[in-house]
Sequence to fold (479 residues):
Amino acid sequence: MRNLMLLFGLILLTGCKNTVPKKEKSSPPNIIYIMADDLGYGDLGIYGQSLFATPNLDRLAKGGMRFLQHYSGSTVCAPSRSVLMTGQHTGHTFIRGNSEMGFTLENEGQYPLASEELTIAEVLKEAGYRTGAFGKWGLGYPGSEGDPNFQGFDQFYGYNCQRVAHNYYPTHLWDNQNKKKLKGNDGATAETYAPKLIHQKALSFLEEYKDTPFFMFYPSVIPHAELIAPKRYMEKYRAKYLPEKKYARKKGGYTVGGYNSQQESHAAFAAMINVLDDQVGEIIDKVHELGIAENTLIIFTSDNGPGKEGGADPDYFDSNGPLKGHKRDLYEGGIRVPMIAYWPSKIKPGSITDHPSAFWDFFPTAIEIAEIKMDLEGIDGISFLPTLKGKKQKTHPYFYWEFLEKGGRQAVLVDQWKGIRLNMTKNPDATIELYRLTDDLGEENDLAEHYPEMVKKIDSLMDEAHEYSEVFSFEHEKN
Fold:
């Protein structure tokens, strides 16, 4: 596989796997990557949200850089995370769908990221970084080759399984290889609210490794359904949003791994964003308190567009702003996400960029930040560090996404021309829709009939970008 080539190249450059050349400087930059779950492009005040406030995230943007055209790795959880970790888009990355391993309380988790796949956490760890992940993993069941402890993370605390992460008062969380039982939903208190427990572990990690270069991956579960927040947050928003979109399961009672009843879904959503915003604020304050802010890059983004599960109501909150589509769509609303970068010593405060970038760019960006020398052949990303520093930036010839569900879908973005192919199960050569984003951000006017040569080019790029996978394949490839 292509990542075997990357690993081989890394070994050649270092003499052996455990001796990646470290920077001569005593304190390489720290990296904190915070990723919300199902947060829409328009769900932050700085990106246009008006129904609730996000003062800390707005503060992050005002002190750093706001990206206007940043894209997630995929339109759902697991493949988006795989893209981020491997630096490869969904035509190449190993995990391309939300594949279960047969969920039960004792056998949880998703299909594992293969051991030979090289992650950014592995590379940074080999270069001397302490690595920690806090939140939702979704790339391999506990103890599997895809377990975060076996993919480069020294420390993991949170949800291994994305289905268990549907519950904010879960029966358990994972502390590395240890299953930590919690009180659960019955009689739950604010102290057992999982995002709070995870956040405390993340802050402790920062305190413990303040004098060591570190990479902290913080994949928050907020605001993914189920929609629920501690009482003190709910009270701030209760009855403020009318009419409420009520959600109730057909079969009553609390269920593990399911979306549970929520009669105040609008209030709960706003309250959850408030929790997330407060937590980001505490991370900003913590790096300043520890005296490491000048040497720490903080990135904030979302894993995909807003979802509609469990009573979530993105249309009510205009979570997509001007964009079309939601989670599971390859229209802009499913994959264009907010991204903020904060680094006081390097990034001009209040800066804005329209540089098109994507999750697969994080791998080479982190490599460049850490000044690690390695062959990046097989990596689809391009470092956006020059953009962060206000310098001349290399750009992508095109961007590519594929989604195996919903009949099979592909999308290509090239020079602001966006091509989308749907219903590939019925016809793998289905007609391509074509939009010009510079004039039509909402993807309302299909121009395919007027620009056949561009359609032909996008068709060719779709074929070029897609590499067959035995594990994650389109339905038409299984015949």
About this structure: Confidence is low (pLDDT under 50) at residues 7-25.
